[in-house]
Amino acid sequence: MYRSISICLFAALLPAAAVAQETETPMLTLEDIHASGMFVSASFQGGKWAGEGPVVTFVEQDGEVAHLIRYDLETEQREFLVDGETLYAPDAERTVGIDGYAYSPDGSAMLIYTDSEQVWRYNTKGYYYLYDLAAQELTPIARREDGFQMFAKFSPDGRRVAFVRNRDLFVVDLADMSERRLTDDGAPGRIINGTSDWVYEEEFGLRDGWAWSPDGARIAYVQLDESDTREFAMADLRAQYPEIERFRYPKAGEANSEIRVGVVDVMSGERRFFDTGTWRTGEDDPEYIPSLGWTPEVDGMSYVWFFRLNREQNRVDVLYGSPEDMSTRLVLREENDTWIDVETSFGDLAGGTITYLDDDRHFVWMSERDGYRHLYLYENDGTFVRQLTHGAWNVTSFHGIALDRDAIFFTATEASPLERQLYRVSFGDSDAAPVRITERSGSHSIDMSPDLRYYIDRFTNVRMPLSATLHQADGTLVKVLEDNAALRERLAAYNLPEPEFIEAPGSDGTMLNAWMLKPTDFDASRQYPLLLYVYGGPGSQTVRNTWGGSRYLWHAYLVEEYDMIIASVDNRGTGGRSKGFKSATYERLGILEAEDQIASAKHFSALPYIDGERTGMWGWSYGGFMTLMSMLYEDGPDTFELGVSVAPVTSWRQYDTIYTERYMSTPQRNEQGYRNSAPVTWADRLRDNQDLLIIHGDLDDNVHFQNTVQMADALQQAGKQFDLMMYPGRNHGIYGGMTRLHLYTLITDYIADNL
């Protein structure tokens, strides 16, 4: 009887309880953010533009099989270009996947790239196969047992394929699949042909270091000699005995790899080199060759073009090399009082420093010579024509020029340093104002079709995760490709705080862009602890109108769960503004930035709703360095009670040549600057009331764990107490398995306990 009554009462109450449960606002958890994948944005498949019209090709995974699909974005018509079931590799005795692909010039065959593996940042070594589209047959370009192949490409006439293997260049004649070696001096620790070393890849983005001549008769390539560079070793201590990984890593002030540009005749095998002034001269002016290629015909000949920089990276030369007599001539020289950004892999400079136009008469050069990054038109022989864009804003991507429509297309910060918008401007009228094409406020990543008649817009802002839409070149919406509706609906169920864009004064009074995140139940009569999130490195931005992903969600979790306020400030030296603003930190990294972060923290602490006795900071990589500098330098000990420094540089002498010397010169020329910019210098200024947590992966090939070891040593020698977490076997990203959940649980608990 009693049991029946209980059941009836439960049944009667169930609907109301269920309704209450359904309407209850869910709360974020660390597991949801860092271990579930429930907040990962869906991404548009993308792929490669097929040529004219809104047509792309892409790889579609179907279980263990990878198909290549041709897809009309407008009509949604799909067709199989390559049925993955036909990709049987006889040498591997199995069906292979598709990691990359390229058509032959006549479209009858493809190069299929598969079974790729990571070299440093990217999967640039693997195996290439020739796929006959009519016969649906797969033929290996080279024997697997001979080693990985890199950067294979069809010759312009489609008769050959060349590639890099074991630091040498090879060519295969497709008629009989015979292989010939084009270089024979590649060797570990010494010569590299056709690709680059660690530091060139990391800081210049140079991985593929060779190119076919337009007639297919020659190959131009970079050759490096790393014999004089120092070797760095990392020990994986997770096994019974250490496993040692060694690689060449030139640190600030140390010897770089020698580099030069060569040309090899594909038929005869004759190799010749230009006198670039960079090869075994014993001097460091010039020093670097970060990019190369072939020009269209200039005065009846295609030349090898290449950039040449001095070691200070404040002068770049564009040179043309004649493949006939191996002479070189200077076509363009750019100089600056601080540094020049060229084909770097960092920041949002995209579209190339130099772009040759389809008219075969001109190239476009990207430069900050007038104080902002703009486009300049040159004739192919180096004759300056005119400046194409003007204004107190930066071009961040150059998409091309449609001469038939008198239109230059580019992405820029014209609306705000916090935004990236697509614009067009007249090619013929130098005084014409740019016309904004994209409408929504936020960040637009634009991928224009080769004919410049369509573009895919990958858009986000602080309130909206990624959406992808197809547009005509004038901005007319054609189709929504991905709206992330499921994620947006999931996020809408949470009562999430929104970042508020504000300004804060730097140490010299310069107004700095910032955002602030407050609890949704913010009460101005209360006082809240303040946590600053910092990166602050040259050309970077944390203050952008863009979706923040898991980092934003974690910040929102902290704000709601622990009743705090989080803010971020783009100090002097960051990007999106003028060259002068970005270059202010030249030869003194961390000094002005720390002063600005301290000044901003003081400004926030003076607000009535901020508890000035509870101010913390956290950052990763350059942000980890900035956390240490801001806590220890000048008024830092009086300003910050807590710091969490992840994977920090603690002395710029421990970081690589190209990045460090671009902003600091060499230690030999700027000894005091290096000393003042090193957190280890200021270790004795950590106070007893400051809580410091340092975190690092011990297999970090970028910012070496050695930095944290030296910081720990300096703090210990100064008698300072601090906390340290090391992640075994983890690199600069500190991820894998449950690592991220452990990491953010650690940081969360540390902040909760000490701030």
Output the keywords.
single chain; 755 residues; alpha+beta; Methylamine Dehydrogenase, Chain H; Methanol Dehydrogenase, Chain A; Neuraminidase; 4 domains; eight-stranded mixed beta sheet; five-stranded antiparallel beta sheet; 13 helices; 35% strand; globular; disordered N terminus
Textual characterization of the structure:
- It is a single chain.
- With 755 residues, the chain is α+β, with helices and mostly antiparallel strands.
- It folds into 4 domains: 45-174, 7 Propeller (Methylamine Dehydrogenase, Chain H); 182-347, Dipeptidylpeptidase IV, N-terminal domain (Methanol Dehydrogenase, Chain A, 8 Propeller); 386-485, Neuraminidase; 495-753, Alpha/Beta hydrolase fold, catalytic domain (Rossmann fold, 3-Layer(aba) Sandwich), CATH 3.40.50.1820.
- It is built from 13 helices and 45 strands.
- The chain has an 8-stranded mixed β-sheet, with helices on both faces.
- A hairpin with a 2-residue loop joins β35 (454-461) and β36.
- The N and C termini lie far apart (56 Å).
Largest sheet composition: 8 strands, mixed
Q: What is the rounded Rg?
A: 28 Å
Task: Give the tally of structural domains.
Answer: 4
| Total of helices | 13
Helicity range of the residues?
Answer: 10-25%
CATH topology of the largest domain: Rossmann fold
